[in-house]
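For the sake of transparency, this paper describes our internal protein records without simplification. The tokens are whole numbers drawn from a learned vocabulary of local backbone shapes. One such record is reproduced below, unchanged from the form in which we store it.

. . .
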Amino acid sequence: MPMDSSKWIDVNVEKNHYHLDHFVIPQHYEKDLSSILIPHGVIMDRVHKLARMIVDETTGPLVVCCILKGGHQYFADLVNCIKKLTTKGGKTIPLSLEFIRVKSYKNDKSDGVTISMTEEECRELEGKNVLIVEDIIDTGATMVKLLQKLDEYKPKSLKVTSLLIKKTTRSNGYVPDYVGFAIPDAFVVGYALDYNEYFRDLDHICVISDHGKEAYAIN
């Protein structure tokens, strides 16, 4: 993955390793986290900046598509920011919202994705500016396949924003148009990112501890 640090905030465990005592953590998660990687306030400031960048580069109405479940918090905060901003011409951006569940599949013949949008809903994207909102890009494989599928319906533009991209050797090199933070190849939770459906109620993005992995493991 090309690492152009001017396009995002580069986060690493050595520099960004906030002690849990320095921030408010829900009591039920105190033993389940090893450190805070990105505090909630930093997340919100970065989301506001990404919203500003998106509005500055958008012409006309925008269809904002949330990838469920992990993307919902970033999606909600990003849309709230976009609604309050105006273009350089002083105009607000008309928004319509879509919610997509994406599932990767594999068989003997091909790899691809299935999405929860109906054929009719997909056809409605034709000629429109579409923004996909994702929580984290890991290998990039699923997102590339999703974009290939949606591009078949001929949107006017098709862009992606992801709050996080993971610095991993497993990456296929895909980089979204708008990125919040590049994070280490570690398992992170919070801000709607989960571990077996837990930690979505945590405001900060944190590194899960071994205790947390064991406590919420699926037997």
Remarks:
- Residues 113 and 146 are 6 Å apart (CA to CA).
- The chain has one domain: 41-197.
